[in-house]
Amino acid sequence: MSAAFHLAARYVLRHRLQSALLAGALGLVFALPLCLRVLIHHAQQELRARAADTPQIVGTRGSALDLMMTALYFKRENLTPLPFGALAELRQPRSTAAIPLHIRYQAQGAPIVGTELDYFPFRGLKLTAGKQISRLGDCVVGARLAQQRQLQPGGHVFSSPEQAFDMAGVYPLKMRVTGILTQNGTPDDDALFVDLKTAWLIEGRSHGHDDLKTDASVVLQQEEGNIVGNAAVRMFNEVTDANRASFHFHGDIAAYPISAVILLPKDTKTEALLAGQFARSKTQQLIRPRDEMAALLAQLVRLEGFAASALLLTATAALLVTALVFALSFRLRLREFQTLEDVGVSRAALISVKVLEIGMVGVVAIGVGLLLLVGASLLAPQLLRLAL
Amino acid sequence: MSDPSGLNVTDLHFAYSGEGFRLSLPQLELAAGQTLALAGPSGAGKSTLLRLLTGLLTPTSGKVSFGEAQMDTMNREERRAFRLKHIGLVFQDFALLDYLTVEENILLPHQFRVGSAGALTRQKMHELTQRLHIDRYLDKRVSQLSQGERQRVAVARALVHEPRFVFADEPTASLDPARGRIVVDMLIADARQRGVCLVMVTHDPNLLPLFDRTLRMEELATA
Question: Which residues of A touch B80 (CB under 8 A)?
Answer without folding.
Answer: 341, 344-347
